[in-house]
Predict the 3D structure of the following.
Amino acid sequence: MDEVNNNSVSTQKDTTKEVKKAKRQPKKVSGRKKKKKQKEAESACSLMAELPFAGAEVWTELGFSSAESSTKKKRKRGDSGRVESEEDGDKKKKKEAARPNYFVSVPITNPEIKRAVEDVQKLLLEKDCRLSRALIPVGTLHITLLVTHLSTQEQLDLAASTLSELESPLNTLLGGRRLILPFCGVGHFKHEVAFVQITDGEHLTTLTLMAESIRKAFEERGILSGDDKAFKPHLTFLKLSRAPKLRKQGVKKLDPALFSEFEGRVFGDECVCRVDLCSMLKKKSADGYYHREKSVSFNLLQSRQRATRTSVKKAPAPDDEELVSLSKRLVEDAVLRAVQQYMEETQQNGAAPRDEAPPGAPSKLNTTK
């Protein structure tokens, strides 16, 4: 009996230990859920990576983390056994909410520039086919003027109305002149972002003033810019951050030799015809460009017609005396030309008959009494 009692007590202790162990062990996440979350993070990063900002590590510099870094942090926290508090969750939500999802830009509409960029991309792929996922689609080529985060429909409507109100000031800034942006040569940011350069000139000053005007108007309405760096206009066509897997393949930096032959390449001129407020995440348009929420166009023909109309209005209208004197001069000139023409014909054909008179002059009639 004592042995039976001892055995029953030991079995009870073993079961209680197993229950405690089961409680301590965390729930295992299935492999499918992990893969799904990882794919969602990678797709979000690839969408953001299409935007050509000045810095190569723009998200890191703005305080945002990539998919890889976030998973690493989660692993570290899991290993250390640190329990996340509600405050940590709120901070994460704030960071995610502050991530830019809209931008104001100048689209590239010149087919010559698009073809030239496409040719360069093809030549790069011939040298290194692994870069295919890092290329920017030619249909989305643009120059970024401002990035921001709009979390509600009210904020989106406010941004659209702000850009609409800027149509008149921006047209005044151009003064009826065309803003031509010449593209020549290739540059890079930290050997991670490749872009087509805009040549120096007065056009860069005008473009910078446009960007500053838009930024100021948005900030006055409470719409903050997502990038505090100095404005550096450029045309990005390749970003390594679009293809995170390249790092695993050993491609961490771009080889300068890839672009050496394009240093003096002329890509063409872009005439700035409009400015767009675009969404980073919404489905792209049929032409391959970003979804446009609002556009402001620069109609140079209309501005020239307005200038012509104002100049005509300013001219003083002639009075009655001027009109009478002008008509007299016109009649006299016509009579003189007719007389001169008659005299020339008379000299060529001989003397004129006595009863004839030059056209326009009173005829002499022989009367007998």
Summary: The two ends are 181 Å apart (CA to CA).
